[in-house]
Amino acid sequence: MPGLPEISPAETWEALRADPDAVLVDVRTDAEWNFVGLPDLSDLGKQPLLIPWQVYPSMQVNGAFAEHLRRAGLTAAHRLYFLCRSGVRSLSAGMAAQADGFPQAFNVTDGFEGPVDAEGHRGKVAGWKADGLPWRQR
Q1: pLDDT tens readout for residues 20-41
Q2: Among candidates 84, 124, 128, which has minimal Cα distance to 107?
Q3: Domain spans of the chain, in order of start
Q4: Fold of 6-136
Q5: Peptide bond into 57 cis (omega under 30)
Q6: Where's the Rhodanese domain (predicted)?
Q7: Which long-range contacts (CB under 8 A, 24 or more apart) does 31-34 make?
């Protein structure tokens, strides 16, 4: 397996806009969706698919992850863009999906919030929020 291609949040937005078979899969936890926010794809006529890679609070890997993708109607024909907080969990989730029948998987570099800045805060240096892409509180 060649690995998972990395794609910037801005390139992900463009891919989601241009491609009807492109899906943003947000693999963060319920707590993150509820308290940190979500990508807002309403201008594209889409919604992020919310499937946690790890289950809060134990943070155990979701053993049914690929099955959840299938239940959502996704197939090998879809291009899947995996997003987490900083790009680490999404890389693991995307690699697992790729190995389980979803060959067109991409990791969104720096995720939703990106790395911490000099003051220890996320969302300002890189990632979906820092790139000025639409998002909302749940």
Answers
A1: 999 999 999 999 999 999 999 9
A2: 84
A3: 6-136
A4: Oxidized Rhodanese; domain 1 (3.40.250)
A5: yes
A6: 18-124
A7: 31/56, 32/85, 32/112, 33/138, 34/138
